[in-house]
Amino acid sequence: MPKKDLADYKKVKNTPEKAEEDVPENELRIGTQRSLKKYISLAIDLFNDEKGFKTVTLKGRGQAVSNVVSIAEVVKRRVKGLHQLTSMESTEVVDEYEPIDASKGLEKIQRTKYICGLSIVLSLDELDKNDAGYQEPLPEDAVVEEDKELRKRSSNRPRRSATKSSSAGRGGRGAASRGTGRGGNAGRGSRGGRGGRGATRGYR
User: Fold this and answer.
1) 168, 174, 156, 157: which is closest to 192 by C-alpha?
2) Is the pLDDT of residue 114 over 70?
């Protein structure tokens, strides 16, 4: 049915997404809302944490397909010896519509559409080299393994910076209360403190 003929209908439901608990622990569903840096860190952690997964799968569909490729390319340059297997997927989505005005005698209708997706498997174990989507590991000199401790320190840096800005702002208000003209300028530092807290929220 053409889209224009849906004017008398409203969408009531569509094919439910796969429940989160059904997704394997070593599989990441890539979207467009979260930062790529966050996904990259999660993927690297799956290889490096106590469980030490040998394989991590990245999946995305629609506009997120390009993100899947970008994340895989970075992870391969942070973890040595990763084989890659890329495959296209198609997800069937069924939308159900019901009439807005039941008195018109219209019946419920369904529309089926297909959304293209991409799946990339990164594995420390060798994969099927005969598969068309296979890529061998990058040369070792092209990989710079990530320093986990350095990443932890970097992730804390915005919070420390925000605290200092906030303290400077409070100091500025104190100077202003003593009535000095320059203290007024310091008072503007308090707005810098509030900006620091905003930066912390953005980082999360």
Assistant:
1) 168
2) yes
